[in-house]
Specification:
InterPro entries: KH_dom-like_a/b, OsmC/Ohr_fam, OsmC/Ohrsf. The protein has about 140 residues and is of the alpha+beta class. It is built from three helices and six strands, in the order βββαββααβ. It folds into two domains: about 40 residues, N-terminal domain of TfIIb (Single Sheet), CATH 2.20.25; about 100 residues, GMP Synthetase, Chain A, domain 3 (2-Layer Sandwich). The protein has a three-stranded antiparallel beta sheet with strand order 1-2-3, with no helix packed on it. A three-stranded mixed beta sheet has the order 4-5-6, with helices on one face. The chain is elongated and about 50 Å long.
Length: about 140
């Protein structure tokens, strides 16, 4: 896996993935940025949520659970001093489907956290990660 980050100007950078996708990153005005893109630390949270959501949907589909939607809301606290690492991460999973088995949804989230999601395992080595699960019946 590869990535390339190119400085544009000020605190603006473009990150390009090895798979050919790009994202603009920038800082807040108080740190010299112009607020033109996502913050790098926000990208870590998005990567964590995306990695886990990917796992949860795949696990449920493999288990033939009728999942129709999955949303992960991520909220994190950071250390007060540099390096301002994440110290606590709260993940809220909202999984929708027709007749989903709650126990299977809980197991999918647990498997993602402990076995499959590389981002969760790496960030979990330094931050407390908690999960809240809501199962919604599809209309």
């Amino acid at each position: 896996m590869k990535a390339r980050i190119t400085w544009v100007e000020g605190r603006t950078f473009v990150g390009e993935s090895g798979s050919g996708h790009a994202v603009v990153m920038d800082g807040a005005p108080e740190s010299g940025g112009r607020n033109l893109g996502i913050r790098p630390m926000e990208m870590l949270l998005i990567g964590l949520g995306g990695c886990s959501a990917f796992d949860v949907v795949m696990i449920l589909e493999k288990g033939r659970e009728p999942v129709t939607d999955c949303r992960v809301e991520v909220d994190a606290d950071r250390a007060e001093t540099d390096p301002k690492i994440f110290t606590r991460i709260r993940m809220r999973y909202v999984v929708t489907g027709r007749g989903l088995d709650r126990a299977k949804v809980e197991r999918a989230v647990q498997l993602s956290k402990e076995k499959y999601c590389s981002a969760s395992i790496m960030l979990g080595a330094m931050a407390e990660i908690t999960a809240e699960i809501e199962v919604v019946e599809a209309a």
